[in-house]
Amino acid sequence: MDNIKKCKMEQNSCTEDRIQHVLERCLCDLEFNTPDKQLWNAGLCMNRWCLEELVMRDPNNFPFLLQTILKKTKEVLIQCQYQLVVPLTLLFSSTLLKTPYLHPDVLLEAYSIFHRFLSWPEPYCTSCQHLLNIIHNELRAPGISFQRLVKAEHGISAADQHSKTMMVLLVSPDENISPEIQSVCKQLSASHQSRRDVITTLILQSFQAALGGKIHLQRLRDALQVKQVSELEQLLERVTHCMETAASTADQKSARQSVLQTMERLTLSLIAISGVNYSDRGCAETFSLPFPKCHTSYWENDNFDFLTNIVMKECHLNIPPTCQQDKDDVDVEKEVMDNHSLSTSTSCHSSSFNCYTSATYTSPVTQSKSRKKPKKKSKSLIDLENISLFFKKPISLGTHLKKSHSRQDQFKTASCPLQNPAFPQKHLCIRRRPILSNNESDAPSAEILVRVLVFGRDREAGRLARAYSDLQQKEAKCPRLTKMCKLQFYLVPTKRSSTSMPNRFSQEDSSTDLAQMLGVMDPWYDRSVHSLLSLSSDVLCQPAWNEDNSISEYMVEHLPLMAELVLYYSRHADQPVLVQLYRAELSLAGGGKRSEVFIHSLELGHKAATRGVKAMGAASKRFGINEESEAVPLTLSVAYNKVACSRRSQWTQADLLCTSINVHKASTRAGHLESRPESLWLSVTEIPKKISKKNNTQNSLISNVNVDRVEVCSCKEGDTFAVCLDQDERKFLQSVTRVEVSLCCKPGSSSDWKSFKSLPGQVQALHASYCSMLCLPFISFSTSHT
Question: Is 486 helix (H, G, I), strand (E, B) or coil?
């Protein structure tokens, strides 16, 4: 007997050492930056699954891991290791979610430690505040986090709880879907557990989280098996009411004591025994989270019309025959003005993609008379501005450089309300800011949360951006979908598509710059999501858990690693990162015009044409694919507004002999994230000299410049070029004569400042709705990092 105890103690000690080691590996080198960082992180990212699998072998491992995390957090607090704060809060919350039973002293210690991070800057204080809210609820109602998550994902609601969470997997149909994506869609889209099994799991988990080892789970499980589903639902409703009431009680001790007493009474009545022998205890069990019900959709059009059908069908709702403006919308402008200060501070710290400042629109830079020294602000304007604007640098946006008088007259007409000499204005500031799309467009009372997980690369992100822009325009006229649900968008990068299709050339697939950009901002996203691209499909398709180490006979089926990634990402990431959208105004050779939206890149010329030709598959053999050096150059007029450190407008115009022009998002590296995140990189493949008669090839020169507005047009009549948006062959346009690229604005806001008129001599205060930048909110684990 002594040998058995000694062997068990040695085994526990060995397991604890392994837990400590794997935890250190999870947090290792989050700021490590080398050329092979992605491959390096691919090995490190596996440690989180190793840690979870190791802990779930024994329910007693959960309290030890939580205490180990707290010990590590104390070191981080003393050494000021900023990059480890958010990962530690996520590791603590995800472990606490599955902990079978925990003594309240551990939670009290955790609350005391993480409370000290509230004085730290963003995003660390926000992440800790979120964790403190979880601990606050768990101290009063043990196991309530598990209960709320499962009920929302499975649509199980009590009388006072109506929240529902839906998951939609969005996949592109025009390419070979990788095996890991096929596995995810197949397993998560199927129904895994019946409603009865889910309710039974919730009841047993609530009893164990409150009473711990005082109950015998097998005896309770046998008692629940003989009950009808309606009886189980009534019992779960009583449990839910008890826990939700306790969570909203101010006094922690009385709230927790009320839950314990209620659970004991329900246990006694459930097993129908007058006196329970608590010494006859069973073993604690670790309850895995039941898989949520998912819907798989394929891209057909760049819109979200399919989401409306899914929401209606899932929630058994009817589409209203008419769309009337909600009464609350009347006071939107008043509410925006009242929350002017709040929105300013929020937009500056919620993401490094949304720190915009006020801008003063000046006269065209082509006129030398307009280049005057900037006037000082009057006291009246200073009194109207928010105090936070004093710490921001001004931006001066220039106008377009045009040779044609018609274009200059058109600009003067558009800017007339601002510069009418009959009504001189000393000061007129127009506030530029990105809208917090997930807060402003979604209804505050929406009870349905729809998580849209986009699988793909920058091409699929571009399709999402166009669908989001289309949704904004439709909802601005007739709010329907956003009145019913709140949308959250997740980006799951995938590997390059297979090029082994018959009769098709090897094609350059789209990049993953947006996922890399999110990884630069959020190391935990880079470690847990983006770095998995380096793993092979065989590894991603393997089960995350060892089949020989089943937790209990009641454990749900095992999922592949890729599916576990999707569930972890969607359940634990909740911070929006706003990514600027861009608009391309296109003029076609036939006289038509077209407006498109992109999020990452716009290719023009030979590179765009090559991508379009390759997309034809077998038909591309007839056209042939030439190298860039063999492309036929075009003489194009290129005008761009250069982004300067002083934030002044520097418009440049030149006629260039070039083959390709590429405009792509600049914020893809760490060095570009701190300044002008909305800017773009303009890359021009220029032909500096004519082709020699003795040599058929031509020299090329690639020039790069940081810009925020670009205009390209053909100089010769009859010359046209091709344009491709976000490396998406479905957005390939030919016979284009002119393209204008600018920041995309919220529908209805881009023209407000042009039509505004004020009284003579009146100073206009800043207005929050003018020139609101349209941003796509991607969900990540944290908003930004330093």
Answer: strand
